[in-house]
Specification:
heterodimer, A: 212 residues, mainly alpha, Serine Threonine Protein Phosphatase 5, Tetratricopeptide repeat, globular, B: 138 residues, alpha/beta, Rossmann fold, four-stranded parallel sheet, 45% helix
Chain lengths: 212, 138
């Protein structure tokens, strides 16, 4: 199975629903060790994404167009660090899939890798800094492994999502070294990173849409 | 023509207040602000930053100062979206927000080129620079 433009749009709409569903929870997590706006910011961004998708002509768009539209909308509307970070992730993913009309498992792995590399380049975070990189890097590794074993798009995304969710949970004991939470020093320990958590939700939504 | 300044802050009031302070000794300099989100709430806006860059860069270049790390991320993204020719002369400078803005504005006001204005902002962090930091005890 591979993912066409309609499939990509459906997956992004699923992400928007998930973000809306977890809006309050993400904001609460961010209140513990951040500036307390992550859920609101992402929800505002994905609400704008959905209204842009409503105006998209799916008959002429390719998956890369959808990813680019998501990127530019998030950059313009999120209003916190998550805007440029998620925006850059989607922008790099869009560039990596090029003019492909459907995305197969290999394309998904390439897109995820490009997205992770974009976030690292933008935010300069390394693994273990208690950021979304701690969800994305295990996701890329798991996706590569799954694709290497011959998994389809749905299975690749499921593997990536589960690894991202585990990676997000594993940020709990870490001390933040990037972002607003890093000002808290030792006190940032004991809470999961909001950006890693939302990254996990995002990938779970993509996986559920691909397998639905 | 002078080098312009872009002040990126999470707060509209913070950016506007700093523009007023920095503008006192630099009346000839365009100090464009991008503070908060469009609706006035706290955050940094790609659109407001892009608009402020267009306002501050008259062709001689501009430097951009920011208050917090996520402002840097949004600013860096905005600069990347500029035409390459303009992106080369819009420089994000990691300098103390208030002291750097005042120091850079004066460097621009006295006719400094882009390089001198960047140096003006960076000098604000040095103990020998303007701003009286020499008085800070060891």
């Amino acid at each position: 199975m591979s993912c066409d433009t309609a499939g990509t749009v459906a997956a992004i709409r699923a992400v928007a629903s998930t973000v809306a569903e977890h809006r309050v929870e993400l904001t609460h997590l961010d209140r513990d060790i951040g500036d307390g706006d992550h859920g609101e910011n992402l929800a505002r961004g994905f609400t704008a994404v959905v209204s842009k998708l409503d105006g998209l002509d799916e008959s002429t768009a390719i998956p890369g167009d959808v990813l680019k539209l998501v990127a530019t909308t998030l950059i313009s509307t999120v209003g916190g660090a998550a805007g440029p970070l998620f925006g850059t992730a989607f922008l790099r993913a869009a560039t990596s899939v090029g003019k492909a009309e459907t995305l197969d498992a290999a394309a998904v792995v390439t897109a995820l890798t490009a997205a992770r590399d974009g976030v690292v380049a933008r935010g300069k975070a390394e693994s273990g800094d208690k950021t979304m990189v701690d969800a994305l890097t295990p996701a890329v590794t798991a996706a590569k492994e799954a694709a290497g074993d011959g998994a389809d798009v749905g299975k690749v995304l499921a593997a990536a999502a589960d690894a991202a969710t585990a990676g997000a949970a594993a940020t709990t004991p870490l001390q933040a070294r990037k972002g607003r939470a890093s000002y808290l020093g030792e006190r940032s320990k004991g809470h999961p990173d909001p950006g890693a958590t939302s990254t996990g939700y995002l990938l779970q939504a993509l996986a559920a849409a691909a397998n639905g | 023509m002078t080098v312009g300044l872009i002040l990126v802050s999470h707060s509209r009031e913070l950016a506007q207040g700093l523009a007023a302070v920095a503008g006192q000794m630099a009346p000839s300099v365009t100090i464009a602000t991008a503070g908060g989100l469009e609706d006035g709430s706290i955050g940094t806006s790609f659109e407001l930053i892009t608009t402020a860059i267009e306002k501050a860069d008259s062709g001689d270049g501009a430097i951009l100062l920011y208050d917090l790390g996520s402002g840097y991320l949004t600013a860096e993204t905005a600069v990347e979206f500029l035409e390459p020719e303009q992106a080369e002369r819009v420089v994000i400078v990691d300098a103390p927000f208030v002291l750097g803005a005042v120091s850079a504005a004066i460097a621009a006001h006295v006719g400094g080129d882009l390089r001198s204005v960047i140096a003006g902002a960076l000098d604000a962090r040095s103990a020998d620079g303007p701003g009286g930091l020499r008085a800070v005890p060891e």
